[in-house]
Amino acid sequence: MAVVPAATPTLSPDETARALVDILNAFLAETRGAGAPVVTAHLDSLLERDLGLDSLSRFELWLRVEQAFGVGVDEEKLAEIETARDLLRLLLAGARREAHAADVVQLADRGVATVPEAATTLLEALDWHVQAQPDRMHITLLDGDAEEARLTYADLARDMAAIAGGLQREGLERGQAVAIMLPTGRDFFAAYYGTLAAGGVPVPIYPPIRLAQLADHVRRQAGILASCAARVLVTVREAKPVGSLLRGQVASLERVVTADDLRAHGAAPARVAVTAQDIAFIQYTSGSTGNPKGVVLTHANLLANIRAMVRATGATSADVFVSWLPLYHDMGLIGAWLCPLYGGLPLVVMSPLHFLARPARWLWAIHRYRGTISAGPNFAYELAASRIDERELAGLDLSSWQWAFNGAEPVSAETMARFAARFARHGFDPNTLAPVYGLAECALDLAFPPGRRGVLVDRIDRARLASRRVAEPVSPGAEGAGIVACGRPLAGYEMRIADEAGRELAERRVGRVEFKGPSATSGYYNNPEATAQLFDGGWLDTGDLGYIAAGELYLTGRSKDIMIRGGHNLYPYELEEAVGAVPGIRKGCVAVFGVGDAASGTERVVVVAETREPDEARRAALVAQINSLAADLIGGPADEVVLAPPHSVLKTSSGKIRRAASREVYERGLIGARRPAVWRELGALGLRSAESRIARWWRGAAAIAYSCWAWGVTGVLAVAAFLVALVVPRPAARRVWRAAARCAVRIGALPLEVEGFAHVPASGPVVVVANHASYVDGLLLYALLPERFAFAAKEGYERNPVTRIAFERAGARFVERFDAGRGVEDTRELTRLVAGGAALGIFPEGTFTRSPGLRPFHMGAFVIAAETGAAVVPVAFRGSRSVLRAEEWIFRRGPVRATFGAPIRPEGSDWGAAVRLREAARAEILRHCGEPDLASDALG
Q1: pLDDT of residue 695
Q2: Who has the most CB within 10 Å: 182, 272, 273, 581?
Q3: Which one, of 554, 555, 515, 553, lies nearest residue 535 by Cα?
């Protein structure tokens, strides 16, 4: 690493300490800004609590220290420091760094090798390389400025076997999840492939970086571990205490081990048959972990996407991939590791901490190893363009770089221009820059630029975009919003822009980005509700908004991030970037989001911007400047500007702004709230963990006893009713089933309270709609309603002969939920039934999950009512979700309330009338069901 030699001769420890304090105080004065209260640091000052220095600030401070003293240390140790005295110890123990070696390391085999085209799994791909070229260099691990290790394909295979054998000795069974909470290193590669070889499902999650983050880290990971039902957690030795806390909160977690623990077994793994359709890993998407969404990706998914990317880039074994990307993120795992593994490219990889500590390391690794491919989010290019000392770049040569991918977050045209301009004199070709688009639900990438053509920017009219969702280009030279092209679909993939009704939009019309392709996920792990919302017919809805022009994809935002004010759609990205550039505001630490305003019927625009500025006059000037920017970019000032202390804006592990989570903190009035001491949080976590284990045992024993009774009663009654219903006429069969349902409710001793049942008409056409929180709802609604009612049931029951016969004899009509064509025909059939005077019961949500909340209603029931003139009677069930949750067999006895609302008559027979019926019925159910409204999140 190029570094300025120490300006002073070797200093004594006392002199070094005084010099360090001087540097620290100078850095504080610069960081806090003019006019801020003077804070004098001493050796025992706490960097975060006393001096207000966050993680990035500590890394920046260390850069200054290194430049002054010419000393380097392990950045993983740097991440753990708490005081200035800790800094001094590291400084005194550090080794003097030499200037960057100009020597170039030749890793790539310039003779182009073939690839495992016939492989159907990642295991077969590795085995192919082991058989064909076992000693070929696969991974070069960097530890700061030095090489830590080199791995061939044969080395990886041996590591894989050792971990697989250990996992099998720990009792891992085929299909069980293994959480991998490891930093970048040899153990991670071994654990991932070892899990596959043992028949398990890898689930990469990020490890804790600092003790101060430990409690929050435990809370965030527990939801993911529970979601995937992880049986084993593989982590570092220091994080084992974290694992013990997690075991108290995650029922499935039985083993917390290190890679060395697994290797110590010394057992050869039993061979497990792994197929293309087996899960290759579960990628948990960024954002809130309150309801984690794990993207299921099979071996076939990954290999399809990898092959498409390798072909799109033309990458061969003559290329070298250089990466600092975290391996728990799909961009690092698939793009930076599995693609090179498949294609035979050498991979040079460093820890993200080493990159953050000194971004120039990334570029020098490209220089030294003659890297041809590298990638990063936009913030990485911004760091390189603006934060690297020019003295660190002397002699840098980036002429080997052929593909500089930018993805995973919005791409800034300004950042790309600054990066290209700064590094042009170091041999960087602007055509190397390649903004791309992908998402975990597609494995990794969906759109690539057509060849090395650099950054393509579309300048569009902001007003037209906001008011009409049209991307109209501005005239040359005019000011407009700059949207960066993300390329075209990969070979074998299709992409379209659709409106809320699923209709494809014309060019330059902004809508939802949807796609089809061989790597599209089948859904979210153990989350059928989120999976159902993911698909629009045969298309997968990305959740992103954008438009297509000349075959190129342009992204305008996330659908959930859109703010709607005064009928205009406003997008947060451009305003966040502009506010982040204001002097006094922390760059990359700005969140813009909308908050519902019942009084105005629209949304309030809130800007939360982090700053360390204490002076009230200067803070007022910052607010004025932010509002001036908002007026320019979104057509008016923000409704509220919150100047918050550091760490107030929440981010994902990959650095993306968590707008929804930040909005929740804002709405709870917790922006800038001080967190309790770490030891208090850990103590509270441990106490809650113990309490939860005891309480869970007692509740579980009681629930099992009650469940055995409830299932026994239900089973006996169901078998008896089924046999009788087979031999009696259909009207009598309905009476038999209804009597059995009512007996089950009474004998099961379920506390049921019914209100408003008199609202159900005794005759004539009527449609009863109810919220759906549990299978118990179907039993209750069937037991409560008269025998003249027919019911709509999902088509899945029709495929099983037993349930088909039982449901048909009980008066059910089967409806298709996903096939649009058949769904329309089923609706027509039910319309004819109700038009003839029948009564119909429907659950318009269509499905239910464990998590509470009233979901969006399908339109079928309300179209039927509008077209036939039938009244709609809303029914709200409250408490049934807790009695029997989704994907469980355990009953939990508790009170259930069924509230029947007054009949709602249609005002017309068209679509608008059906929509009004839906909204009125849904509002009535929402008023009584006692659960939150999830329609805005689910539809947004």
Answers
A1: 55
A2: 182
A3: 515
